[in-house]
Amino acid sequence: MVSDQDGGLLSRMKERRVFLFEQIVIFSEPLDKKKGFSTPGYLFKNSIKVNTAHRGSKRTVAAKHVNKKLLRREQVLQEIRLLQNLDHPNLVKLLDTYETASSYVLVLEMADQGRFLDYIVSWGNLTEEKVALYLRDILEALHYLHSWRIAHLDLKPENIVVEHASSQPVIKLTDFGDAVQLNPPSSYIHPLLGSPEFSAPELILGQPVSLTSDLWSLGVVTYVVLSGASPFLDESLEETCLNICRLDFSFPEDYFQGVSPAARDFICLLLRGEPERRPPAASCLEEPWLQPRSLSSSDSTLNPTQPPALSPSRNHCGAHLDTSRLISFIERRKHQNDARPIGTIKAFLHSRLLSQT
């Protein structure tokens, strides 16, 4: 990690770019040539895959490029400081940091199976047992973060990734650009920018956030994974925000056919309007629906490139879940513009909510 002396956590790099097949190949050479660290890579939107050679070893990593025109240096340093102190198997690790002429660059651990929903759709054969297994990983990450009083505040499918570590997939949280360490009795109001689809009511209404704001988001993620539908999404940003603040969601049988009552109860447990009524991550890990099952005897020797098959549980329906709607959900999210601020509609929301009391 770059030292905090002489300019802070970020080091400036020389950079030259070569355009090839509509992709950008970046060759970056650190000014400190004694490091022996070169990073040729391919830029894909906001991240790159690079082969690194450092002290004789090679690995594939991801790099998050943050446009200097979009974020202040102090905002980036806040994310770096948080990541430096975190070490958990269900969190993507920060490996190094750099600064180019146009970007701040965070070099991160690579999750070799990509984004969570893409992984689910590509493998198919999704069951409640597998969903519960994946959710436990996310909850373990949240439990660790919350033990440091860190709220992620941007928990959504795009910020959940998968890697294969030996016998089964490991689910990891990434992107801590919105994360903040909460220090009671001080309160923190998070400036929400972008789609509110996975945001808790308190974020939308401009009220103080809490650690359980992340649990609300996990409830929405759970709903999406089990049904392929978004619980609060409506035709306009205003209506979506109203649905969230009114707790206006249901379980249409067409979408939740084969989903157990226990799974629906778990979602309802998290989608409570009052932050203090949502259970903490540690309590969620004790929920019967999320208790780990033993692997079936036929899977005693697992192929590390395949998701595990789990034995039946009395808390789950054993039917395969329909993932066809997830494909449409993923496609919509890819083309969705998340850059619209919602601060301008807070007065509208308050007036609409007050008119119904």
For CATH, the homologous superfamily of the largest domain is named as Transferase(Phosphotransferase) domain 1
Number of domains: 2
The spatial strand order of the largest sheet comes to 1-2-3-4-5-7-6
Order of helices and strands: EEEEEHEEHHEEEEHHHHHHHH
Overall pLDDT, averaged?
79
Might you state the CATH topology name of the largest domain?
A: Transferase(Phosphotransferase), domain 1
Using the coordinates above, name the CATH class of the largest domain: Mainly Alpha
Which parts are unreliable, with pLDDT below 50 for 5 consecutive residues or more? 1-6, 13-49, 294-304, 309-314
Binned, the helix content reads 25-40%
Question: What would you say the CATH architecture of the largest domain is?
Answer: Orthogonal Bundle
- As an assembly, this protein is single chain
Number of discrete helical segments:
11
Any idea what the shape is? globular
Distance linking N and C termini? 54 Å
**Secondary-structure class:** alpha+beta
Radius of gyration (CA) equals 21 Å
GO molecular function, one term: protein serine/threonine kinase activity
InterPro entries: Kinase-like_dom_sf, PH-like_dom_sf, Prot_kinase_dom, Ser/Thr_kinase_AS
Keywords: ATP-binding, Kinase, Nucleotide-binding, Serine/threonine-protein kinase, Transferase
Region (Disordered): 292-317
